[in-house]
Design brief:
single chain; 380 residues; alpha/beta; 7-stranded mixed sheet; 5-stranded mixed sheet; 14 helices; 12 strands; 37% helix; binds pyridoxal-5'-phosphate
Length: 380
């Protein structure tokens, strides 16, 4: 057991994967740009690194830190969140069946349907908030159950322990994966709920400053899909640069405090919008009338920085609110210091089932009074 695993998450976030640079005493890790590493006279690699696609000190430090934050056995980082999804789907065999959320991050549908359209995979998109429905969707060929909680943009909450249990009861051949991007390892520990692996788009809260794209996969135990993802990383080559890893690890220093502030701000904004006459509905798992409130209260340490709301009126009313915002920036993505507002239906295109009057907010680190004032003036 690592020393950090006995400590609180704030301490782990600062110390896990870090060490004083032995050659200089540098406290902040150096960025190792070298693509190649010296062999010893007997042909070995005594320090464990040979070539930077296969392994790099900055990447290894980030992986060690993420494994400890999630309470996992091992971690792999990739050049984006979707590179993680690609590596996992690539590990499946023709004829394998996937169960994924009906409101999954749209990129996963692209990976399964477009990138691997020829691979002969079968997918059922199910409502993950209904464990009986998920059980009914399983087949003898099911190999992967994908969950994402809270989900985008309606913030639906999946009971991770219930999904892990039904998967285990159904078959030893099923691997469960949770996309924990919205919750981060600070608010939710899917591996402790019995889920096999967690993935993150580290582009979002983990990097935390909207300046680096990346992804991570953390496993609770050895399994073939993790090993195949490792091969996809090393030999498929979707690796993050040393500087990307360094930036992401730097973001993690402050992750626990940032996520707490994002969550507090979001709760205040959600409560305010809930009482506003020009708002038809607010979707935030921290509001007691949200359908996922009870599970979220049990499963999460706080409710996170993401919420969405429906403006009274149609698409145009929502577009007008977004257009009038001064502090909220109209942009996609989430998890950074700036608050962002987005009309999801226009991003998702004509097939979308997202309500046309819905706006998604990524609540940043500004003062909540200023955020509320901005929304008030935009709502008119
Ligand atoms: C952004 C996001 C992804 C994809 O990650 P990238 O880093 O953009 O490739 C996957 N899942 C969720 C929930 C996301 O928000």
């Amino acid at each position: 057991m690592k020393i950090e695993s006995l400590m609180k998450i704030e301490t782990v976030a600062v110390h896990a994967g870090r060490r004083i640079d032995p050659s200089t005493g540098a406290v902040t890790p150096p960025i190792h740009l070298s693509t190649t590493f010296e062999r010893s006279a007997d042909g070995e690699y005594p320090l464990g690194f040979s070539y930077s696609r296969e392994g790099n000190p900055n990447r290894r430090a980030l992986e060690e830190c993420l494994a400890e934050l999630e309470g996992g056995k091992d971690a792999l980082v990739f050049s984006s969140g979707l590179a993680v999804a690609t590596a996992l789907v690539q590990g499946l065999e023709p004829g394998d069946h996937i169960v994924a959320p009906d409101d999954v991050y749209w990129g996963l549908r692209k990976v399964i349907g477009d990138v691997f359209g020829k691979a002969g995979l079968e997918t059922t998109y199910a409502d993950m908030t209904d464990p009986d429905g998920v059980r009914a969707a399983l087949k003898p060929s099911t190999r992967l159950i994908w969950v994402e909680t809270p989900s985008n943009p309606l913030m639906k909450v999946t009971d991770l322990a219930a999904i892990a249990t039904l998967a285990r009861q159904a078959s030893p051949n099923i691997v469960t994966v949770c996309d924990g991007t919205f919750a981060t390892p600070i608010l939710q520990h899917p591996l402790d709920c019995g889920i096999d692996m967690v993935c993150h788009s580290t582009t979002k809260y983990i990097g935390g400053h909207s300046d680096v794209v990346g992804g991570a996969l953390i496993t609770r135990h050895d399994n073939y899909l993790f090993e195949r993802a490792r091969r996809a990383q090393r030999y498929g080559g979707a690796v993050p640069s040393p500087f990307d890893c360094w930036l992401t690890l730097r973001g993690i220093d402050t992750l626990p405090y940032r996520v707490r502030a994002h969550s507090e701000n979001a709760l205040r904004v959600a409560r305010h919008l809930k009482m506003h006459d020009a708002v038809e509905a607010v979707h935030y798992p921290g509001l007691p009338d949200h359908p996922g409130y009870e599970i979220a209260a049990r499963q999460m340490a706080a409710f996170g920085g993401m919420l969405s709301f429906q403006v009274a009126g149609m698409r145009e009313a929502a577009m007008n609110v977004a257009a009038r915002c001064r502090l909220f920036i109209r942009a996609t993505s989430l998890g950074g210091a700036h608050s962002l507002i987005e009309h999801r239906a226009s991003v998702e295109g004509p097939q979308t089932r997202t309500p046309q009057n819905l706006l998604r907010l990524s609540i940043g680190l500004e003062h909540p009074d200023d955020l509320i004032a901005d929304l008030n003036q935009a709502l008119g």
